[in-house]
Amino acid sequence: MSTALSSVLPSPARTTRKRPWLLHPAAKVVLFVTCLLPFVWLAVGAATASLGANPAEALIRGFGDWTLRFLCITLAVTPVRKWTNTPALARFRRMLGLYTFFYGCVHFLCYAWLDKDLLLTDIVTDIAKRPFILVGTLALLLMLPLAATSFNRAIKALGAPRWQRLHQLVYATVLLGLLHFFWMRAGKNDFAEVGVYAAIVAVLLGWRVLERLRRRFASA
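Above: the chain's sequence. Below: its structure in token form.
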């Protein structure tokens, strides 16, 4: 594995002293189950007719909300890892990223099935006609190569520099996802929650910009 990638992996000796439970094999199992809970909650809500007067809309929006939340959580791994000096957090980033893609796919599937009856011509027409659906679809398409290359074999096949450049698509993805959410809420003139997500994304991306500038000035 390349030096660039190995630098973000946890140092077992240092991490074990500070956060031994993060290195326990059960930690990933706990994370896997925890990340699945929103899906279970929405699925059970649909099965028991407890999602309100419009369960189709509740499902579509619920899975969309969780896609954006998981995007933010995935982006937060690196800064939180550095702020708390907890390198072991890096081992959970892949799973969080794959769950982001999973919720994005379920979100789109619910839209295609519950809103468009899986009619391809209606789906394509709707995507072309409504900008907020177009940018949401683009965000999902950008996540596809990220999910497909999230494994060690892909890193080796692409090489660390190209793999890292490819995975910078996550920044465009979260911005498109935020724009999708903004336009969706604009129809109801409800921007309070949009503002919260925008602030979180601004902090996560702003930190990366500052880190890059700091490294550039340090090496100058």
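The two ends are 28 Å apart (CA to CA).
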